[in-house]
Amino acid sequence: MTVRFHRRILLGVTGGVAAYKAAELTRLLVKARIDVQVAMTEAACGFIAPATFQALSGKPVLTDLWDPRIPNRMAHIELTRQADAILVAPASADFIAKIAQGTADDLLSTTVAARNCPLLVAPAMNREMWANPANQRNIAKLRADGVTLVGPDTGEQACGETGEGRLVEPAALLEAVLALYPSPRLAGRKAVVTAGPTFEAIDPVRGITNASSGKMGYAVAEALRDEGAEVVLVSGPTALTPPEGCTVVGVRSAAEMLAAVQAALPGAAFFFAVAAVADYTPQVQAPHKLKKSGEPVTLTLVPTVDILATVAGGPTPPFCVGFAAESRDLATYAENKRHSKHVPLIVGNLAQRALGRDDNEIVLFDAGGAHALPPAPKPVLARQLVDHAIRLAETQGAS
Ligand code: CTP
């Protein structure tokens, strides 16, 4: 099964012999490219050392509510806000009672109480403890509170008895975690994205460029990657960190961007032209720094190749998405670009609302009309855009 990147689980380990199985679970989660942060109760540390989880997860294990490594000293809030879900495995009878009561007296119970994400609980205890009416009352409370119970299994127990209360096997726990995430729709598909500005050199130290931070293009690349696509991000000069899990090809000029896109294109199902490509480039690049003379200077600019139009005009084009950054008349210019470049989807935005900012306001233009999305951070808009493009490509049978 292909797994999305950047899935983050908080694994809570509580006291019980089955704690050793949580080590195997950590290994499986990491292998499935899920980021695992382990938090242990004091009792859990009596069964298995935090060093084991640290080695397997690649991260320090948290046990202390007052951990000085958490900058704002609010480990319980930080932990849950950074996780897609919390899985407590194994969950002891005592810890289940704490969750049922809302008790918050150590790092893990406080984190569970402060959570804003789904909670999965995998109980592990002796069969009599499991069947105990008090425990069953607590389990019923957890269910009523929307907690997902994973197990327990029935079988041989560490204490030598046989019955219900065994921790579910790590592979099945992994499946329960994977079931939280919608399956990626672009697994096995390739997507090429352009981002950032281009830089057209005048001489070795000067050039013409466009204002573009690259944030939207990088967010689109990440959204495609999170849908399971193999992403090639062709990026002009930006100050951004290359997104994990994408192949990043750094370029400078429009000509270099065109060449990199053409090299990456074979087999691509999607092409997102997010870059602010220079429309003109100096006809001549001076080999040495130009010296000032005090006289007016004339620079002859020649048009660059339109990368989007070239790709969309190819014999078997991928599903193409273009951007239109305008300063006025958004709908008219965006629709004109959609028709003239022969692309099924154009993303319109007003440059003054978008440039360099972390959020944006966009309108999607396709054959069905204009779809305005509410203002949101660029990563949110990128996910909505990718979702729209996937649906449109499906209906057109083009992806
Ligand atoms: N584009 C491209 N190659 C170019 C110019 C633009 O691939 N040489 C792409 C952009 O990445 C964007 C779309 O075309 O997806 C529209 O770009 P934009 O600069 O808004 O429009 P232009 O076609 O350049 O028209 P104008 O500058 O007149 O608005």
Would you mind describing this structure in some detail?
With 399 residues, the protein is α/β, with parallel strands linked by helices. It is 34% helix and 25% strand. It is elongated, with a radius of gyration of 27 Å. The mean pLDDT is 92. The structure holds cytidine-5'-triphosphate. Cytidine-5'-triphosphate (CTP) binds next to helix 12 and strand 16.
Strand portion, in percent? 25-35%
CATH superfamily grouping of the largest domain: CoaB-like
Domain unit count = 2
CATH class of the largest domain equals: Alpha Beta
The hetero compounds bound to this protein are: cytidine-5'-triphosphate
Give the end-to-end Cα distance, rounded to a whole number of Å: 21 Å
Q: Strands of the largest sheet, in order across it?
A: 12-11-8-13-16-17-19-20
Mean pLDDT figure: 92
Number of strands: 21
Number of separate helices: 15
Summarize the biggest pleated sheet: 8 strands, mixed
Features:
Rossmann fold; alpha/beta; 8-stranded mixed beta sheet; binds cytidine-5'-triphosphate; 2 domains; 399 residues; 5-stranded parallel beta sheet; 21 strands
Care to give the gist of this entry?
The protein is of the alpha/beta class.
How is the topology of this model organized?
Blueprint: E1 7-13, H1 19-31, E2 34-40, H2 42-45, H3 50-57, H4 75-81, E3 85-91, H5 93-101, H6 107-113, E4 119-123, H7 127-131, H8 133-144, E5 148-149, E6 153-156, E7 162-166, H9 170-178, E8 190-195, E9 199-203, E10 206-209, H10 215-226, E11 230-235, E12 247-250, H11 254-264, E13 268-273, E14 280-282, E15 301-303, H12 307-312, E16 319-326, H13 330-340, E17 345-350, H14 351-354, E18 359-360, E19 362-366, E20 369-372, E21 376-377, H15 378-396
Parallel strand pairs: 1-2, 1-3, 3-4, 4-5, 8-11, 8-13, 11-12, 13-16, 16-17
Antiparallel strand pairs: 6-7, 9-10, 14-15, 17-19, 18-21, 19-20
Helix pairs in contact: 1-3, 1-9, 4-6, 5-8, 10-15
Bound molecules: cytidine-5'-triphosphate (CTP).
